[in-house]
Amino acid sequence: MTVIGWIVFGLIVGALAKLVMPGRDPGGIIVTMLIGIAGSMLGGFIGRAAGWYGPGQAAGFLMSFLGAVILLMLYRMLVRRRTTL
User: Fold this and answer.
1) How far apart, in Å, are the Cα atoms of 77 and each of 13, 35, 39, 59?
2) Which burial class, exposed, middle or buried, applies to 50 when counting CB atoms under 10 A from its CB (0-12, 13-18, 19+)?
3) What mean pLDDT comes out for the span 6-11?
4) Sequence-ordered list of residues with C-beta below 8 angstroms from that of 15, at least 6 positions apart, any chain
5) Model confidence over 39-71: pLDDT tens digits?
6) Among 27, 54, 58, 71, which has the minimal tally of Cβ within 10 Å of its Cβ?
7) Which residues contact 23 (CB under 8 A, 6 or more apart)?
8) What's the pTM?
9) How far is CA 40 from the centre of its chain?
10) Neighbour tally for 82: CB within 10 Å
11) SS3 content of the chain, % helix, strand, coil (to 5)
C-alpha cells in the first residue's frame, strides 16, 4: 500500500508542478509520476540538508512540490537541448 501511496502522491505533485509551469511537455502520465516521485525525494534531500527534516522524516508537500518543479525545469532543458541538436 505504501508504494501505491507514493505513486498517487507523485502523480498529484507532478501534475501540480505541470500546472504551475505551463507549456508543452514531451511526457505523459508516467513521466509526470516519475517527476513527482523524484521531486519528493529531491525535496526531502534539500530539507534534510537545510536541517528542516530529520534523517527518517519524509518531505512535506511544499518541499516535494518544489523538488518536482526543479526537476521539471531540468527535464524541459534537457529535452529541449536534445531536440535542437
Assistant:
1) 20, 14, 16, 25
2) exposed
3) 77
4) 32, 36
5) 877 877 788 788 887 776 666 788 888 888 888
6) 54
7) 76
8) 0.75
9) 6
10) 9
11) 75, 0, 25
Report residue 65 as a C-alpha cell: 512540490
CB 14 within 8 A of CB 33: yes
DSSP 17-52: HHHHS-S--S--HHHHHHHHHHHHHHHHHHHHHHTS
Whole-Å CA distances, 62 to 16, 25, 66: 11, 22, 6
Of 27, 31, 32, which Cα lies nearest the Cα of 11? 32
Kindly state the cell numbers that stand for 17: 508542478
Cell numbers representing residue 22 in the block: 505551463
Residue extents of the structural domains in the chain: 2-18+27-84
